[in-house]
Amino acid sequence: MTTETTPPQGEKLQKILAGAGIGSRREMERWISEGRVAVNGEKASLGDRALATDRISVDGRPVKLDNYASRVRRVIAYNKPEGEICSRSDPEGRPTVFDRLPRLSGERWIAVGRLDLNTSGLILFTTDGELASRLMHPSHEIEREYAVRVMGNVTEQKVKNLFEGVELEDGPARFTDIVDSGGAGINRWFHVCVMEGRNREVRRLWESQELTVSRLKRVRFANVIIPDHLRMGQWEELDKDTIDALAANVDLTPAPLPTVRKQARTTSTGLKGSRGRTAPLKKGKKRPSPHKKAAPHKRNRFS
């Protein structure tokens, strides 16, 4: 004799809130645990499910689920300057990466990972909390590529150690690819790839070999490569093909275009086919040094 069970109704509450652009899934789980979320007037508990037709509120304020119901997904790329922090506000009054982003109505930008104060380059922001959570989760092994200037004697043995893996204070770590991009004297540029977004991981890996990182810039996240024309402090909205490819990396289906799109601060409407950049590094293949083959004005793109 078998007993039929009724499948659970709706989706997990934290997933709905993340999909509505309120915050990342981890952040929503914490808010639910803190008693800040209610469904149909009742305080929610972690593990609760809901429908897009339910009345959901956070801190007593109703949550608009229009974006969740239509699965609108927006992503922008931001070229972070050194000196900006990745928090929404700072008690010390330092500038944040959110200061220059376009204003939204009824939703907010969610940062996909973080960069240190002294690290520049590509940060993605999205209105889709589920996409942000999946891109940041280590299980999806999303590749991040950095251009890094290293001071010191970089020997073949040290590069081998970094490729094979070293033990850091929070566990083993390694570069999945290392490319010598040239340089002069004690300073050399390298392109390196990691599969996680651990705190200061790139710097700590080089420091494990008694080397110093003097410049660090993220140039790629998954399939999104920062374009040459995007200057420090500028943002640009990704086109639908690029967003769909990004979502496919973490097993999310394509989403429809938003009914209204804000203009980016640059002339291009997306990152697909950006000028002067090579394709992402692939396993087993090495990128030629940009310092050797690029035109003179390209050689300084990391300066």
TrEMBL record:
Its EC number is 5.4.99.-. It comes from Endozoicomonas euniceicola. Belongs to the pseudouridine synthase RsuA family. Gene3D superfamilies: Alpha-L RNA-binding motif (3.30.70.1560), Pseudouridine synthase I, catalytic domain, N-terminal subdomain (3.30.70.580), RNA-binding S4 domain (3.10.290.10). SUPFAM superfamilies: Alpha-L RNA-binding motif (SSF55174), Pseudouridine synthase (SSF55120). This is Pseudouridine synthase. Residues 257-303 are annotated as: Disordered. It comes from the Bacteria. It catalyses: uridine(2605) in 23S rRNA = pseudouridine(2605) in 23S rRNA. Responsible for synthesis of pseudouridine from uracil-2605 in 23S ribosomal RNA. Residues 11-69 form the RNA-binding S4 domain. The gene is rluB. Keywords: Isomerase, RNA-binding. Pfam families: PseudoU_synth_2, S4. It is an enzyme of class 5 (isomerase). InterPro entries: PsdUridine_s_RsuA/RluB/E/F_cat, PsdUridine_synth_cat_dom_sf, PsdUridine_synth_RsuA/RluA, PsdUridine_synth_RsuA/RluB/E/F, PsdUridine_synth_RsuA/RluB_CS, RsuA_PseudoU_synthase, S4_RNA-bd, S4_RNA-bd_sf. Residues 280-303 have a biased composition (Basic residues). One of its GO terms (molecular function) is 23S rRNA pseudouridine(2605) synthase activity.
